[in-house]
Amino acid sequence: MRHSNSQQMVLGFIEQYQGEHQRPPTIREIQDHCGFKSPRAVSYILEKLEEARLIIRQAHSRGIHLTKSRAISPGVQLPLFASIPAGMPDQFDGSEAPEMLRFIPTTLGISNPGRAFAVRVSGDSMIDAGIFSGDIVVLEQKEAKPGDIVAALIDGENTLKRLVKENGRVYLKAENPRYPNLEPMEKLDVQGVVVSVLRTYAAAA
């Protein structure tokens, strides 16, 4: 079953919080961490997670419990880069990342945590794919298929675009009509395939 980014974000925080504090978070703590405008928004997502049998809720402030199958899931740390790392995939291992994010791999669609990393998006070239400036994209170093959104090194420049293969041509396509397609003059190497997008909603001022 596929879950929304908001559901993944909340579930990941519950798992992270419980792993660190040995108790579940309150609705207010979930709201503050995830940036929701109201407790009701959190309650709605918790209802969906309960319907999916990923959590069990009880009538008290810390009454959110992971189902047994998820409670034993190990957490991993992903390197978070401010931009797509330079160089080929095998040339960066995350040790130079300025930040680390802790997640449960299955909540983000990661199959191999050792090949995953995260990048904070800058710019609006992928807005029609629902990826906005300031979002965090989680990528995995694996074989890319046509139609995948990828981080790629094209003629020595790093970018985040959709991979297109047609009529024997391979190129990168922006999801914003203001930006042109990018065709490699010499070489195009995929550094990672986007498997999830994370967004924090800031409360209105």
Summarize the structure.
By secondary structure, the chain is of the alpha+beta class.
User: What is the CATH class designation of the largest domain?
Assistant: Mainly Beta
- Percent of residues in helices: 10-25%
Strand order in the sheet with the most strands: 4-3-5-6-10-7-8-9
Number of strands: 10
Reported by name, the CATH topology of the largest domain is Umud Fragment, subunit A
Major sheet details:
8 strands, mixed
CATH homologous group name of the largest domain: Umud Fragment, subunit A
CATH architecture of the largest domain: Ribbon
Structure description:
- By secondary structure, this protein is α+β, with helices and mostly antiparallel strands.
- The chain folds into 2 domains: 5-71, Arc Repressor Mutant, subunit A (Orthogonal Bundle); 76-198, Umud Fragment, subunit A.
- It has helices at 5-21, 27-34, 39-51, 68-71, and strands at 55-57, 64-66, 76-81, 99-103, 116-120, 136-140, 149-154, 157-166, 169-173, 188-198.
- The strands form 2 sheets. It has an 8-stranded mixed sheet, with helices on one face. A two-stranded antiparallel sheet has the order 1-2.
- Helix 1 (5-21) crosses helix 3 and helix 2 crosses helix 3.
- 29% of the residues are buried.
- The model has no long low-confidence stretch (mean pLDDT 81).
